[in-house]
Amino acid sequence: GYVSADFRRHALAYFIEPLLARHDHGRFDVFCYSNSRKTDEVTDRFRGYASQWRDITEMSDEAAAQLVAGDGIDILIDLSGHTARNRLLMFARKPAPVQISYVGYLNTTGLRSMDFRISDSYADPPDVSDALHTEKILRLPHSQWCYRPPADAPEVNALPALQRGFVTFGSLHRLTKINTNVIELWARLLARQPGSELLIAGVPAGKTRQRICGQFASLGVGAARLHLIDRINFDDYMRLYHQIDVGLDAFPYNGATTTCESLWMGIPVVTLGGRYAAARSGVSLLTSAGLPDLIADTPEKFIEIATSLAREPRRLAELRSSLRDRMMQSPLMDEIEFTRAFETLLHSAYFASARST
Hints:
The chain has about 350 residues and is of the alpha/beta class. It has helices at about 15-20, 40-50, 60-70, 90, 125-130, 160-165, 180-190, 205-220, 235-240, 255-265, 280-290, 300-310, 315-330, 335-355; strands at about 1-5, 30-35, 50-55, 75-80, 100, 115-120, 135-140, 170, 195-200, 225-230, 245-250, 270, 295. The strands form two sheets. The chain has a seven-stranded parallel β-sheet with strand order 3-2-1-4-5-6-7, covered by helices on one side. Helix 7 crosses helix 12 (about 300-310). The chain starts with a strand and ends with a helix.
């Protein structure tokens, strides 16, 4: 059983759809417990993947737990953690013998009733993460992420820098990830690469935009070098990637969907790896995509990698034209292999739990 408020066009969908679509229904009956009034064409696809679809939006946690128990669910998987419209209080009632947290929240739930969390050794190094979880961490062999891009994503375009004569760095993260330390590092990068510009999406006009411009100005970066884009619809958002040459990951909360989208659109993303899962999504994704040379372990290395890319437009153009194919051939998009590995973890978790009880 999978429990989520995000069985729709949502960041989660790009990572959970490959799993739901590829499950071996000879070994698993798949129940989806949806906790959202919002539905769309993605929801319709997800309904088709499920053996049974349950809408628990209007149910109390107690009633939802009774439904799960009545369905005879062996393994119940939470896809929300502490994000919006989660049903952790349902999980606290322990309606299934094995309960697992996965992908929607990159940290421990803190619940004694949550038995496991699925991750990988790049995002959650054993010597760091295990002691910080109430759950036991189960690690997939490559990455915890498997990406299915949107079918309506535009084609990769030619490198913008070749026409413009300068490099555009870019970030399409949620604005909440772009903190003071991120801005300081990006300002240092722009200072190191004269003539370069920076595109940031999701910056509303008014006080927020003035604040961002003021922070960069205090660090010597004028407004003329910034392209601050307001919130826009999905199609226009995806076309923003056509304006970016090099993607910049945020920290300490890395991107995931934006990193995969960037790579799919031919844009290398430079990440600064941290110690914990939310700060190591970039490490996991780029390693799985076969791009470990884009991972920095210090701010200075981050600047070095980004400027090296910016100063080699031919290399950047070749990378842009090949990234989509490289992604398709990597573990990051090997849906069948990923799902079989995931199913193996589920079996091992279930039978280990059965032996212990």
